[in-house]
Design goal:
This protein is α+β, with helices and mostly antiparallel strands. It contains one helix and seven strands. The chain is 24% helix and 35% strand. The longest helix has 27 residues. About 4% of the residues have low confidence.
Length: 112
């Protein structure tokens, strides 16, 4: 009987701990929308060639996110690894322009 009581207490503690962890995660996790990428530096992961879309990687919060990408006005080709800036967003695509070099932005997005 004593063993069953201890098992029930342990189960209650585990349920309490799991509940606390889930509550903590829901209060600290932020979901990012594609619109949150606007103004951020991104790195080309699939080349963008004129009117053909490619893909970029953007660091949002602590997560790397991939988005379909098009050059603004279908101008420019961006090779793999090129740095770009997200200037606008659509429902499923980001619009980018060439990144102007800035010494304070020397970190590699994909290497993080």
């Amino acid at each position: 009987m004593e063993m069953m009581k201890k098992a029930a207490e342990l189960a209650d503690e585990m349920i309490s701990t799991v509940g606390w962890l889930l509550n903590r995660a829901s209060n600290t996790t932020k979901l990012y929308d594609i619109a949150d990428a606007k103004g951020l530096t991104a790195e080309v992961s699939v080349p963008i060639q004129g009117a053909k879309p490619g893909e970029v990687v953007v660091l949002l919060g602590h997560s790397l996110r991939n988005f379909s990408a098009r050059a603004i006005g279908d101008q420019g080709d961006f090779k793999l690894g090129s740095k770009v800036v997200v200037v606008d967003t659509g429902s499923n695509v980001v619009y980018v322009r060439a990144h102007v070099h800035n010494d304070s932005d020397a970190s590699e997005i994909l290497s993080q």
